[in-house]
Amino acid sequence: MASSATTQPVRLAATDAHIQPQSPTQRVIRRFLRHRAAMFGLVILIGVILYIVVGSFIFTEAYANRNDTSIRLLPPSAEHPFGTDRIGRDIMARTIYGGQISLLIGLLAVLVEVTVGTAVGAIAGFYGGLIDALLMRLTEAMLSIPSLLFLLVMAKSFGSRIPDIELFGRTLSGSVVVIIIIIGLTSWMSLARIVRSNVLSLKETEFVLAARALGLPNWRIITAHILPNTLASIIVALTLGVASAILSEAYISFLGLGVQAPTASWGNILTEAQQFQIIRDAPWYWFFPSLLILLTVLSINFVGDGLRDALDPRSDKKV
What we know:
Layout: H1 2-17, H2 24-33, H3 36-58, H4 61-65, H5 91-127, H6 129-143, H7 147-158, E1 165-167, E2 170-172, H8 175-185, H9 189-202, H10 206-213, H11 218-226, H12 231-254, H13 266-273, H14 278-281, H15 283-311
Antiparallel strand pairs: 1-2
Helix pairs in contact: 2-15, 3-5, 3-15, 5-6, 5-8, 5-9, 5-12, 5-15, 6-9, 7-8, 10-11, 12-13, 12-15, 13-15
């Protein structure tokens, strides 16, 4: 009995010696890797990105825009895996270059959203008083405007007034710039309210009060001490905002007010497909761009859910 009693603490000590402490970053990665839906979404998202990146080395943009009416509306085949459209263009090549534009719009629109929303929320929460009241009334006024209706009106008014631009060797219609700015400026409100609530709870904490006592300027306190502690909410909003921006672009492009020719996007491919009863007669025309939109949006949402759980320090459950 005495021998077993003395060996048990030794075994426990040996077991504890093998337990390595984990940093906060390691714990976040571990929780994210255990999130099955997030990992499934990440695999799909990587596949979509590889499709539009590797595909651009196989098909040129000139080939994607080249029309040949003698092969119009051909069903999927070995030569044209996704079939051809109403003027004989290869739909696979169109979805490759259209996907680049759709993802570009999503990413840049979210950068505008995160920049404006974070700035408004941080300033309102930190300074309070009249500044907070004015910024929050502005936020509430923006929330009361139907974003899709506002997006349609602004795209209709300004989409054709900006000339085509050259970017990375590609010619993009000016409507792309308008859509990025409008989507970004109509989707920052929810993030601003989230950041404001976090800043209100953080500005009275000990490390912020210590920074004030040391005489640090307000902008330094906000950027170096407060915003890093709201990074989890910002990252989640960024990932989910990309999916929302892609859908918004698809909405207005489907209505004919989004990305204009010669630039392709998944949304304006669907616009072409809904004309001349093609939806019924050539289902491959709309199926493949719709499938890519669905997979992209779902995968980004899954990754966003995984990041939300992984960045929550209270969330350590198995998923």
